[in-house]
């Protein structure tokens, strides 16, 4: 499986299961990159950047959802 396919599956899972909720609150998440070890770098943007609940959103929502839909990723890493 190529990196483009993996990235496409990550984006599809975000679009279907994560972004609608983030958009409703004025935020979003962007995929910055996926390294060879299958670690996904993401950045919270918009209202999500400074939200005090972003850690819970991160752990309980985004990472868990992505791992459920794209099980070969190892974990998410926040970048600024």
List keywords for this structure.
single chain, 80 residues, alpha+beta, three-stranded mixed β-sheet, 3 strands, globular
What would your notes on this structure say?
With 80 residues, this protein is of the alpha+beta class. The chain is built from 2 helices and 3 strands, in the order αββαβ. The protein has helices at residues 3-24, 54-69; strands at residues 27-34, 39-46, 75-78. Strands 1-2-3 form a 3-stranded mixed sheet. Strand 1 (27-34) and strand 2 form a beta hairpin. Helix 1 (3-24) crosses helix 2 (54-69). The mean pLDDT is 88.
Identify low-pLDDT runs. Answer: none
Helix content: 40-55%
Question: How much is the average pLDDT?
Answer: 88
User: Given the structure, what is the number of helices?
Assistant: 2
The biggest beta sheet, please? 3 strands, mixed
| Rough outline | globular
Q: Write down the Rg.
A: 12 Å
**Biggest sheet strand line-up:** 1-2-3
Separation of the first and last Cα atoms: 28 Å
Total beta strands: 3
Helix and strand string, N-terminal first? Answer: HEEHE
Q: What percentage of the residues does DSSP assign to strands (E)?
A: 25-35%
Structural class: alpha+beta
Brief synopsis:
By secondary structure, the protein is α+β, with helices and mostly antiparallel strands. The chain is 48% helix and 25% strand.
List the helices and strands and how they pair.
Blueprint: H1 3-24, E1 27-34, E2 39-46, H2 54-69, E3 75-78
Parallel strand pairs: 2-3
Antiparallel strand pairs: 1-2
Helix pairs in contact: 1-2
